[in-house]
Amino acid sequence: MERWRVGVLRSGVENVAWTDQGEGTDWESARDAAVEALHARVLAEGRQEFRVQVAENEAYVFPGETADGGLELTGIGDVLSQRYSG
To answer: Of 21, 49, 70, 71, which has the fewest Cβ atoms less than 10 A away?
Structure first.
């Protein structure tokens, strides 16, 4: 089992609020669940700084803005596209 979590660093605060978490049967399924939760969190929170952690791998996500003022979500699915070991 691999644990995952998603958090948001909201404007005006110093610490990440870990808002979503769970487990996957393996790293890839945990990553997929984390990306799904991240997508939903970005839609709910808007343009903030987000953190995603799957097992020991962590990534930062800063959604952009489209020309018409909407959220740019095209890169969300690529976060932690591979497992890193260090």
So the answer is: 70
Paired tokens of 66: 């489209």
Distances (CA, A) of 13 to 6, 8, 9, 10, 48: 17, 10, 7, 6, 11
Please say whether the beta carbons of 53 and 24 come within 8 A.
Answer: no
- Rounded Cα distance between 12 and 29, Å, is 33
Burial of 72: CB neighbours in 10 Å, binned 0-12, 13-18, 19+: middle
Q: How far apart are CA 52 and CA 62, in angstroms?
A: 11
Give per-residue pLDDT as tens, 42-82: 999 999 999 999 999 999 999 988 999 888 888 788 888 87
DSSP state of 85: -
